[in-house]
Amino acid sequence: MSSSLNAHLVEEADSRISNLIHKTPILTSSTLDEICAKKLYFKCENFQKTGSFKIRGFLNAILKAKESGHLKGVITMSAGNGGQSLAYSASKVGVPSIVAVPETVSITKADAIVAYGAELQRCPPNITILEETCEKLAKDLGYYYVDPHSDYEVMAGHGTVVKEFLEQAPDLDALLVQVGGGGLIAGVAKYVAEVNPKIKVFCIEPEGKDLQSSLNAQVPLWEDTSKMLNTIADGLMVQRVTEQSFQVINECCQKRTFSVNNQEISNAMLLIMQRLKVVIEPSAALGLAAVLKYREELKDCHKIGIILTGGNADLNKLPF
């Protein structure tokens, strides 16, 4: 794992993975623009390999580890998308993989992880238990633990999504980015801060995360770092943000965090599926949910970028 995160690390990651992933398109909708009184640009990572942006970070980290020496196997913890990305990446480099998942993981995502070739380790829905399971297995088996939220190579790989985004839509005023454990927002915010700091990067969270209090204090305030949120956005269930990610958020993002609840996420998800004609999972809808709820606070931002982070929805259990 690299010791710091910067735009150069993102560019290195882009060179490493660009020929192995999809360059995803941007979609727009005149109806959604009219509803929001904004010009919205939706980056379709739901069309990405394994169905989410997470292949970018996991593939970069695993390829970098492979370059650095012998790689016996890989392991991570995941609510679904990261696990699929790890399993797919491991299969491409020819090593075994294990994914520790909460017992609440959706059947759709669990089945996909196994289909990509990984072994599942089911755990209680508790971050500490998931982390300890990964660390013990990594030590016992000699596997590389790919930390989804603290590994700078993962963050750099995730940051390639905004490098690509800005090549396709260079004149954005703002980016609204979902926050789970913090890997995506860290990679995106650090790259934007160094390459085009005029673009405002806002954090969007599921209700109950309360990132705002920590930003106000400028230090992480989560006392129970094992807690998972009760949210339909299953890719964003982690309540705490890691120390590494928080430092980047505090340095590079706007100090105003936008929070949305389950009903607002559900409404935005339905609008996106109706108007853009694409399948997304609830986590991908937070950006639009935030624009709809906070459009007055965003009155100075006219061209807004939103990342549709994933499309691995359980179509038998849609929230609307």
From TrEMBL:
GO molecular function, one term: threonine racemase activity
Keyword Nucleotide-binding appears in the UniProt entry: no
Domain (Tryptophan synthase beta chain-like PALP) ranges: 17-310
Cofactor: pyridoxal 5'-phosphate
Statement: the UniProt record of this protein carries the keyword Ribonucleoprotein: no
Alphabetized UniProt keyword annotations: Pyridoxal phosphate
GO BP, one annotated term: D-serine biosynthetic process
Protein family per UniProt: Belongs to the serine/threonine dehydratase family.
PANTHER family, alphabetized: SERINE / THREONINE RACEMASE FAMILY MEMBER, SERINE RACEMASE
Protein name: Tryptophan synthase beta chain-like PALP domain-containing protein
Naturally occurring in which organism (per UniProt): Acrobeloides nanus
